[in-house]
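ok so i was messing around last nite and threw this chain in just to see what happens. nothing serious, just curious
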Amino acid sequence: MGKKILIVDDEKLIRDFIKSFIESSKEFSKYSVDLACNGEEAIAKIKQNSYEVIFTDLKMPNKSGLDVIKTASEISPETDCVLITAFGGGESAQKAMAYGAYEYITKPVSIDEIELILRHITERRELIEENQKLQKALTDKTVFPKIIGKSPKIKDIMDIVKMVAPTNATVLITGESGTGKELVAEAIHTLSPRSDNNFVKINCAALPESLIESELFGFEKGSFTGAIKRTRGKFEMADGGSILLDEISEMNLDLQAKLLRVIQEKEINRIGSEQPIKINTRIIATSNRDLAEEVKNGRFREDLFFRLNIVPINLPPLRIRKDDIPSLVDSFLKKLSFDLGVRKKNISSDVMELLLNYDWPGNIRELQNAIERAIITTPSEMISTDAFTFISQKIHSDSGEKKAIPSITQQVEFDDMTLAEVEKILIYRALDKTDNNKNEAARILGVTSRTLRNKLHLYENDIGEVNN
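result:
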């Protein structure tokens, strides 16, 4: 059944005027229009039909516009009613709003007002419908509303998610930064029997090494300076649910040994206590590094790797699933426009071509940030390529116009150079070799991503923007 609008007015000229505008508008052509010349006819139609929007005059013989709005609110509370009055705000308008009217407008009726009100109602309804679909998806547990994409690679990954979610198996999710590892982890928890319990996240790369242990396992009062009370750790908080160990490759070897014991014994010890605490927590870990390679280089425990790698899931970078970019862009335009409080914006075909031709080293996160920046910096409804000049600049830079970084093949005399200067050249060479990929450069250099970021912060005046 199509969406309907009811126009109620005892003046034929006004009825026809509003109807003509709606039917001639491309934006609102999805609506069919019914007419009623008085309140009684309108009430009869409301009892027989379902209307998205009702425009009703206030002063009419027998049944007034207030009667129409009151009836609509009782029979169809989801209908948006707009009162048309020749008497300004006044008491009648206040009553109409109290009955649940969406808005009121004054005569003479303005096309601009009608258009603006219909647009607001339409956008609000679309958001409500989208939210209902998301809620239904979560209830059905058959689709993944936050994971956007229909490429074969994504479908294969979601098939694995559906198979592993009902189990208690430990899952290791790998992939470059920005590929959506956390969203896949969340989908596993949501589809599992643990979904009614906590899904606790901890970013191992964001916390100082000295704090990760206390965050994971908790501590007793007085166990160290500043421990003023007993505090539960993330594993206890996630008991019965799931814990996400994000970027687990940043965890030091000593803590890796303690985590291995947690997996084997299913118990933890708070710092400062020898009393073990039994836990029933599912572990989901992520890493933007190749952990098998980290094991070879002695930076990750082999036994822990085997325990985590029960069900491996590797997320592809966006550059090899570009057929998902249009869907991602459309989703970001809707969501971010709403979050930023602006009308939904659109992109030109030239912009889409530009987005499809870029390799997105920062993956989905970089794409989302680019769309958000474009929405903010574009005053018009249509986003043009001008909002994405940074992509052209990066492509141009990648073609050989980067700021000077010593080439990986360039011979450098190290005599009379300080250790800091030699270190700087080695970092530049690693960045050159990895096409400015910080995570890969850190792996080659044998340091953590955090350490490399700190070094680059010192050099930021010497090199251009470095990709995540």
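not much to say yet. The chain has four domains: 3-134, 152-316, 319-398, 402-468.
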